[in-house]
Amino acid sequence: MVTLRAASFLDKGGTGKTTSIAHLGVALTELGHDVLLIDLAGKQGDLGKHLGEWEQVKEDIANDEDWPNISTVFDDTWNKIVDTVGEQEAVDKLIIETEEGPDLIPAHPGLDSLDAELGNVDDATERYSRLDAFLSQYIDGRGYDVVLVDLPGLTNNVSYNGLWAVDGVITPVEMGPFESEQADALRDDLETFRDRFDVEVVLAMVLPNKMDTRTKLASEYLEEFEDQYPDAIAPEPIPVSQDIRNAANSGQTAFALEEPSTTAERAREAFLADAEALVDRLGEKA
Length: 286
Description:
alpha/beta, Rossmann fold
């Protein structure tokens, strides 16, 4: 069985990358897939917060029960950890089973220094392929259908590791000129990345996010994105919804809401349609 991999990335914060990864992950489990989410977006642990797991992670950190963690898989000591406790236990300690379905490898404060540590690795291939090596050796054989990685909102050694490791990139964008420019820049960056390192990673999904369908301007920008990215645009834009924000603040996705608003219900349906399309696109590449 081939484990499909994708990462959310745009060299800009605040576009909804973490929210999108959380909801796509839950949507994929709703569709019957086994999913692993990995939070590399920063030590603040927003993906864990979104899935209601961050308080337990913080408690483990406070009690020195946070070893190994996501930052250690990039370290030269990872193989020593595996030799000491065994592969099964080492990987099991990384993974949290969330209540909404996907498994999660949460963020960790060790991510704060990871970019600089990777920068000390002289060989570029070795520097950027560490996540891919970890996933290939320790995750691909664990029965996951899809692995989704939440990357930092900037281009650095950590995000390059994510791009190296995945089959496709998910780019959540809001409907505006700056986001259009950023998406164009990302397409160029991916082409440069492919040419420089001979690593095939595609723009799998441009995901229109926080879409206010009541405004003519948003609809015009959506049409522009559809024209520019006919093969990558998501089949359904994600509507703006206060319920999604409220759910995130309470450690949930919109899928966990017992009485979702109309916009939240539409968002859930959109994420399900987009998750199904994402699997099809990643499967074509695989």
